[in-house]
Write the structure tokens for this entry.
Amino acid sequence: MKADKISEAVVRRLPVYLRYLNELHKREVTTVSSQELGQKLDLNPAQIRKDLAYFGDFGRKGIGYDVVYLIDKIRHILKIDQQINVALVGAGNLGQALSNYNAYLKDNMKIVAVFDSSPAKIGHQINTLTVQPMDELRETVRQLHIRIGIITVPDFEAQRVADEMIESGIGAILNFAPTIIKAPPHIRIHATDFTTDLLSLAYYLENGKDDNENDDQ
Ligand SMILES: NC(=O)c1ccc[n+]([C@@H]2O[C@H](COP(=O)([O-])OP(=O)(O)OC[C@H]3O[C@@H](n4cnc5c(N)ncnc54)[C@H](O)[C@@H]3O)[C@@H](O)[C@H]2O)c1
């Protein structure tokens, strides 16, 4: 099945499956059933079987899924069977923390370059990376085959940085700034908004019980 036909909801669940399958593999578990996956990941086993059936018939009745085979297949579908190089722009508090966080390395995602516009940050060392000036973005993206960009600049600078990333050839952006990025349709933007998540949590904290009661009426 072609990747562009997989629904967004399925694509978002695949990394969840992968994380748990990697954990099973580390524990030398060789097979897993959709029931076990469902229980562990709090998902409906029928949904899991349906998701995985998108990619062919892997499951064997009574035995379940072969963990290594499934890991390979999902990595292939997510295109992380090859290293995906990532650039981060905005070497402030959040940018430095993300650049130091290397848990995505095992899934072949690697921040290979960090950029900032501030002379106070340029030349600063974050682990093995040296913060580069923005005028090196385009050439570095080309040389290192960078495919994904992470934006950790203030909200009022985010669109400008996104435009520069897109002009440099980056095809997908993860935006941490609390602003909506406009981009051509072929550019994929994912936003992660910590503040709105926190605000909506506060609402449920106060209203969760009442809401449930209302649902029953
Ligand atoms: N710190 C957090 O916990 C947190 C959490 C969620 C979201 N955010 C969001 O992430 C973004 C960064 O937050 P922060 O706390 O790291 O800010 P920060 O001020 O510490 O860092 C921002 C960095 O971006 C750089 N910058 C500004 N304009 C730029 C440009 N045009 N090109 C390149 N670099 C530029 C600055 O020089 C600075 O180093 C903000 O939009 C913030 O709302 C932060």
Observations:
- Confidence is low (pLDDT under 50) at residues 213-217.
